[in-house]
Amino acid sequence: MLYLDYVKAYDERHMAMPFGDIVAEKYKSVYIPFSATGLYAPLDGKAMYFRPDSELDFRNCIIKGIQLICIDEAATNLGWGEIKDNLPITTLRKGILYISNTEREIIATLPFHNLIKFANNGKLTMTYFTQQIWQNCYVEFADVTGITSVNGLQFIVYYDEI
Prior knowledge:
By secondary structure, the protein is mainly beta. The protein is 11% helix and 35% strand.
């Protein structure tokens, strides 16, 4: 197989794209603000689900990239109308984002460190998710040391409408 055949195959399967290319038609910020108690109280190994967002479900979009904002990129975020502090990379390295489908089957496991543009020489984590249900997607931390109710997570999801 020639080099150009490989490039064509990767392109057809959505496995590569030019680095400086426009990733998607749209993007939006999504949040998980931590709390002292309840669903969003950080605990080791606890699944914290995203709120429903039909705009990010597979029926309405293809998710083409995901970015996690660390404190080096923005000190705070306005998650659900409440100012929360973003976390440092050292703390975020302990987290994972799970993308799930309608049956709550995990279709992707994304370590937080790979989602931080700042930590990846300015490169966005490119994806091509076509089966996701946003409210079935969640995050987990192996260790929540240093995470309190003043913190929150901010993701930027890049997507094309269907």
